[in-house]
Design a protein that fits this description.
About 35% of the residues lie in helices and about 35% in strands. With about 140 residues, the chain is α+β, with helices and mostly antiparallel strands.
Length: about 140
């Protein structure tokens, strides 16, 4: 399986602007700029997209882990906060709220830890990764 996205940029780093398009066209010429990355401008930015990818990947991996252990989650909600400092991503912090009937705390913690370490995006990122969670 291969997926792709395309970035187009026009102009200088600070005054220029660009847009992103994904293969699925969920993003279709979605704007990004210096303002949307380093200030509060309209549009997306690479760090926001990494946060979306990491929260989605982790949550899906955890769902597979739970199903494999015989549990059906009612809901898994994960927020990812990416920290960007001194020109590099230094941290990805996941905050999970989970509703999973009949699971013990330790078993759940073990499945969360596995998802944290083994989702493909976690394996891709070369940064500190942490997870906080609330069960039921």
């Amino acid at each position: 399986m291969k997926r792709n996205a395309t970035a187009v940029w026009n102009g200088t780093g600070k005054e220029g602007k660009g847009h992103l398009t994904t293969q699925s066209t969920v993003l279709d010429k979605t704007q990004y700029s210096f303002g949307s990355r380093f200030e509060n401008g309209v549009g997306t930015n690479p760090e926001e997209l990494i946060a979306a990818a990491h929260s989605g990947c982790f949550t899906m991996k955890l769902s597979f882990n739970l199903s494999g252990a015989g549990y059906t989650p009612e809901e898994l909600q994960t927020k990812c906060e990416i920290t960007f400092e001194d020109g590099k991503i230094t941290r990805s912090h996941l905050t999970l709220s989970a509703k999973v009937p009949n699971i013990g705390e330790q078993e759940f913690a073990d499945l969360v830890k596995d998802a944290e370490k083994n989702c493909p995006i976690s394996q891709l990122l070369n940064t500190e990764i942490s997870v906080d969670y609330q069960l039921n």
